[in-house]
Design goal:
Keywords: Membrane, Transmembrane, Transmembrane helix. The chain is α+β, with helices and mostly antiparallel strands and about 180 residues long. It folds into 2 domains: about 40 residues; about 120 residues, no CATH class. About 30% of the residues lie in helices and about 30% in strands. The chain has a 5-stranded antiparallel β-sheet, with no helix packed on it. It has a 3-stranded antiparallel β-sheet with strand order 2-3-4, with no helix packed on it. β5 and β6 form a beta hairpin.
Length: about 180
């Protein structure tokens, strides 16, 4: 029966194209997996980058190592503090400028005070009735436009960024007093 043979053979599905496509997919997956495994094991040697996360202690050590000393040119960095700057909170456009005489640190010759403003952080020291800026560090997005280091009767630092921020410092006894103006 010729019709029976044709109906039996003609109704079958040609599986060859499916096997070829399936084989290519398996080859692609194996090659991709091998690439990921090799990159994971070789990491830095292949990619040339360091991908390890730094601990807070690593970050602190790196910042201390890269900070210029107070005797170098430019703006020295303010000392790192695990709890943040000491002194009043920075003034904001919705709050008037602040002033004050926060507690400080220092030796027998005078007191140091850390002053936080929206434009940055300033460290000042009074000694013999004269004030000296020990360091100033602009906040992110700000830069120092003008700084009077001292020693003088009155010193100031101007930060410029999204807004202007100025810190003026003078001595009240052996402690720095200050005014912060934002605008």
């Amino acid at each position: 029966m010729p019709g029976d043979a044709a109906s039996c053979g003609g109704g079958g599905v040609n599986r060859r194209p499916l096997l070829v496509v399936g084989g290519w997919l398996v080859a692609v997956l194996v090659a991709t997996g091998a690439g990921v495994v090799v990159t994971a094991f070789l990491g830095d040697a292949v990619t040339g980058s360091v991908s390890r996360a730094l601990s807070p202690a690593d970050v602190r050590r790196s910042l201390e190592a890269s900070a210029p000393s107070p005797g170098t040119a430019g703006s020295p960095a303010a000392p790192a503090s695990p709890t943040g700057p000491v002194g009043p909170p920075p003034a904001s456009p919705s709050r008037p400028a602040s002033s004050g005489t926060p507690g400080g640190t220092g030796g027998a010759g005078g007191k140091e005070t850390v002053i936080a403003a929206s434009g940055g952080v300033v460290v000042a020291r009074c000694e013999g009735g004269m004030v000296t800026l020990r360091s100033w560090t602009p906040a992110q997005g700000y830069e120092v436009k003008d700084a009077e280091r001292g020693p003088r009767d009155k010193v100031r630092v101007r930060f410029q960024g999204p807004s202007r921020s100025e810190v003026e410092v003078w001595c009240r006894g052996d402690r720095p007093a200050f005014a912060v103006r934002n605008g």
